[in-house]
Amino acid sequence: MEAATQEALKKLFESKLNKAMRLYLDTCAHCGLCVEACHVYQAMPETKYTPVGRAEVVRKLFKRYFKMQGKIAPWLGEVIELDDKSVNMAYEAAFSCTGCRRCVTVCPFGIDTQQVMNIAKLLLIGAEKQPQILAMLSDMSIAKGETWKETANDYIAALNNLAPEVEALAPTPPGRPAIPIDVENANVLYVGLSGKHSIVPAAAILNAASENWTISHFEAVNFAAWLGDGEKQRLIAKRIIMEAERLKVKEVAVVECGTATRVLKFMTGSHPFRIVSIVELIARYIEQGRIKVKPGTISGTLTYHDPCQLGRNGGVMEEPRYIIGKLTDKFVELTPNKEANWCCGGGGGLISLGEHEFRMKTGKVKVDQMRASKADTICTACENCHTQLTELNEHYGLGMKVESLTNLVAHALTGFGA
Amino acid sequence: MDPQAVSAASQAVVHTGFALFLDKLYYFIMVPLVYISVIVMIVGIVAKIVSIVRAPIPAFSLKTYPAKKRPFLAALGDTFGMPMIRKEKPLFWFFLMMFHIGIFFLFFGHLDLFPGVNLMPPESRHMIGAGAVGLSVTIPTFYFLFRRFKGQERHISVPSDYLLLLLLLFIFLLGDMISWGNSWTANGFVMTKADFKNYFGILKSFSFVDPRTVLHGSHYHFVVLHVFLAELFMMILPFTKIVHTFFSLPLNLLRRR
User: Fold this and answer.
1) Which residues are listed as membrane-spanning (chain B) (predicted)?
2) Are A112 and B248 an interchain contact pair (Cβ–Cβ within 8 Å)?
């Protein structure tokens, strides 16, 4: 590695050394508590797949370049140099971590490996070794933010084509389109994904609640969050924030996407509007009696997978269970669940990166949970989790049905006009 | 004070050659280096804290859920109760609790040696715990060390982990010998709490008197070694993971707030 590149990487590293990061990098006692908390390690018990093993790649660089110990007695901490080898180690560490933060809950100091991995990811960007798929998808999202007006008419036409499917689930309130767009002063701005599966069920629910809502021109997913590019992450989120400001909405409801929800809700500062997950919104509608669902639409027993970014990292744990309680009385929990739930193995951008073999291996602990539940259907509230669970179901021949919670609710809507 | 509490004074001996060098080295360790190591530790800790306080605040909350109603109390509970360790590895938790409670008493045991402080009765020849406190840190340290020789703990450990534990172990073993073992002679205590109080009196008064005048007998070598290793520990403290002493609470606050 050239000296100039090394210097540039050191500067990038230093730019990430905020209060939390300094504490995380200085304090690890190598107690090993986090080791068995990682689903990747559970499937592939190698040191490099432990949270501490991953963080050590960054920590050893930190010691080498930012601590006296690394200069006078590097052998004490087995420090490593910033070179091609350590960059490759950083890649393996960063992209074998789904950022589920289960390790945070067992670490006696609460060291956040996901955050430490963001340094590794930034070094990869600096060394131009970042996953190109995520970089490209991030750039496309940003470009969409700049050129959305040019494609708006096509998008609106495509939305209009979905109207019959929405109306098959719930009637549209009189005088409104099935999927409204660009509605100023709407109560809710719903941000979906690019597929109709993320739009139709949510639209039906919002219509069933007679909500004054509008759909976003953008998709919620934030590829840059997985890429570890803070600036691009901000730009992607900013498109939606600016749209909400432009339309003067009261609330932004984010599609079933854990990372998008966490980024928008917790990482974009304060706004004149609330940001919630669609799951929170549905729970509120049911609680307020704005929508009704008929129980018994799900055959057999149902279980729920807590998406890490929505549950442990977003606090949405009781709402899905409240909704499920209205849908069926044949609910069984996965064990463990809620904040202790195992990651499905699809987070951290691994779905977008492909990585099928790795994901199928590291999803083993989730498969064991699914099997043990003996449930007929598993539902979740995150697009990535849904994809991963579907693939795990097929790969391991579990014979379960995999559903999205929003979709289950949409197909159980009843009592219109009551 | 009970006259039996203080060991009998021995005749001062004038040394030459290597013995003289050792005398000077011992004196340096027992007096000037104590002040130096305390200063290094304090300056190091302050510098470390300042570097963290001056670093930018994270742009967003790093907390995990479910959110606690009283985040500060929850962080205190995490820090001092270590519930996650109790749940995952109860034996490890038992030794950690034993160790940290022992350290707490160890601190007060040494504070008790300062003139004017009498947590134990002045006539007592024992330090706080009469040796039990020393054992309560020594036994867990053996456990902490041995667990690093197997499984993933071995793979995730770096040389500094072992050296730090060995340093602690030797400090504790020597401390055990001083506080407890030195009473096992045929004539009773070689050095008593009162003797150590006199030594701390020298340090407190900045009189720079040779501690040999108040600490007598062959155990002095072990006292010097104990003090030297403790000084080493104090000087490296701000630069090692022992800083978790100061940062455990702020770290736990990060995940609770």
Assistant:
1) 25-47, 91-108, 128-146, 162-181, 220-247
2) no
Query: What pLDDT score does A54 carry?
Result: 98
Distance between A262 CA and the closest CA of chain B, angstroms: 10
**Neighbour-count burial for A284-311, b at 16+ CB within 10 Å, e otherwise:** bbbeeebbebeeeebeebbbbbbbbbbb
- Single-letter amino acid, residue A192: G
Q: What tens digit of pLDDT does each residue of B23-61 get?
A: 999 999 999 999 999 999 999 999 999 999 999 999 999
Contact residues, chain B, for A27 at CB < 8 Å: 241, 243-244, 247-248, 251
Q: Residue B48: list chain A partners with CB under 8 A.
A: 26
| Measured distance CA(A108)–CA(A29) in Å, rounded | 9
Report residue A39 as tokens: 């689903």
Three-state SS at B64: coil
Ordered structural domains, chain B, with CATH: 13-55+85-256 (1.20.950.20)
Listed residue (A184, A36, A201) closest to A103, CA to CA = A36
Q: What pLDDT is attached to residue A1?
A: 82
Q: Which fold has domain A292-414?
A: Rossmann fold (3.40.50)
Domain A132-287 bears CATH identifier 1.20.1280:
no
A36-to-A105, A395, B86 alpha-carbon distances in Å: 12, 24, 15
- d(CA A290, CA A292) in angstroms, rounded, equals 7
Q: Where in chain A is the domain with CATH 3.40.50?
A: 132-287, 292-414
Residue that the structure tokens 């639409």 belong to = A297
Rounded CA gap, A82 and A66, in Å? 12
* Spatial contact of B252 and B71, defined as CB atoms under 8 Å apart: no
Here the tokens at position A257 are: 């996407």
List the single best residue of A18, A24, A25, A27 to mutate versus B (max B Cβ within 10 A). A27
Q: Is B248 helix (H, G, I), strand (E, B) or coil?
A: helix
Task: Per residue of chain A (418 residues), give pLDDT as tens.
Answer: 889 999 999 999 999 999 999 999 999 999 999 999 999 999 999 999 999 999 999 999 999 999 988 999 999 999 999 999 999 999 999 999 999 999 999 999 999 999 999 999 999 999 999 999 999 999 999 999 899 999 999 999 999 999 999 999 999 999 999 999 999 999 999 999 989 999 999 999 999 999 999 999 999 999 999 999 999 999 999 999 999 999 999 999 999 999 999 999 999 999 999 999 999 999 999 999 999 999 989 999 999 999 999 999 999 999 999 999 999 999 999 999 999 999 999 999 999 999 999 999 999 999 999 999 999 999 999 999 999 999 999 999 999 999 999 999 999 999 875 5
Q: How far apart are CA B103 and CA B123, in angstroms?
A: 24
- In eight-state DSSP terms, residue B35 is H
Angle between helices B159-179 and B220-236 (to 10 degrees): 140
Strand arrangement, sheet containing A274-277: A213-215, A188-191, A251-254, A274-277
pLDDT at B27: 96
Question: Are residues B60 and A267, on separate chains, in Cβ contact within 8 Å?
Answer: yes
What residue spans of A19-112 are helical by DSSP H? Answer: 19-27, 39-43, 51-66, 68-72, 84-94, 102-106
> For B59-102, what is each residue's pLDDT tens digit?
999 999 999 999 999 999 999 999 999 999 999 999 999 999 99
- pLDDT score of B2: 45
CA distance B122 to B194: 8
Cβ count within 10 A of residue A414: 13
